[in-house]
Write a structure and sequence with these properties.
single chain, mainly alpha, about 85% helix, 10 helices
Length: about 190
């Protein structure tokens, strides 16, 4: 059985390099989504609100992403995928910069809600885009590969945001995500 598995793995063609920007985009998206939980104490202290009040940023983002993904999928169905994905990352970056400058929770909440529209579009559209980039027999592997970005974000992105937030402040963590978003938009 080991020889059969090895032989079939060797015969399997490599995934196209065009999937790397999509993987990195999902890493950036996931890192940005998890930046708030990673810096929640810093946000609360900086904006002089309770951790529970600052935690509402997480709930609001989750609601927008859950309800926004299917709703926005219909809205953007006919758009050019590469432009759509790049625009989502640009939107994400610009709004992370805006969030970093928010003077209060009353400002940060609507900016964050607008910001997470990008993940609600980017992640599902990335999965749909994979179907156009690889042959049917590679789609499962390709989708798994692209969504590895979210897994890496949970292992590296959130701790990275927490480290930066703890040492330089939560605003610096948001700026880092903004910069990564702009780089990712260029790569896409």
């Amino acid at each position: 059985m080991s020889l059969t598995t090895t032989a079939s793995s060797a015969a399997r063609p490599a995934l196209p390099a065009v999937l790397w920007p999509l993987l990195f985009g999902n890493f950036v998206i996931g890192s940005g989504v998890m930046a708030v939980p990673g810096t929640l104490n810093e946000i609360a202290a900086s904006l002089q609100v309770s951790v529970a009040a600052a935690g509402q940023l997480i709930s609001a983002a989750a609601l927008v992403m859950c309800l926004g993904a299917p709703t926005l999928a219909a809205l953007v169905a006919g758009w050019d995928r590469r432009r759509l994905l790049a625009m989502c990352l640009l939107w994400y970056g610009v709004l992370h910069f805006a969030c970093a400058g928010a003077p209060s929770l009353a400002w940060l909440m609507p900016l964050r809600v607008l910001c997470v529209i990008a993940p609600a579009i980017f992640t599902p559209q990335t999965a749909a885009c994979v179907g156009l980039l690889v042959p049917p027999e590679q789609r499962g592997r390709a989708i798994t590969f692209v969504f590895l970005g979210w897994s890496v974000a949970s292992v590296l992105g959130m701790p990275m945001a927490a480290f930066i937030g703890g040492n330089l402040g939560w605003r610096a963590a948001f700026v880092m995500v903004g910069l990564m978003s702009l780089g990712s938009a260029w790569w896409v």
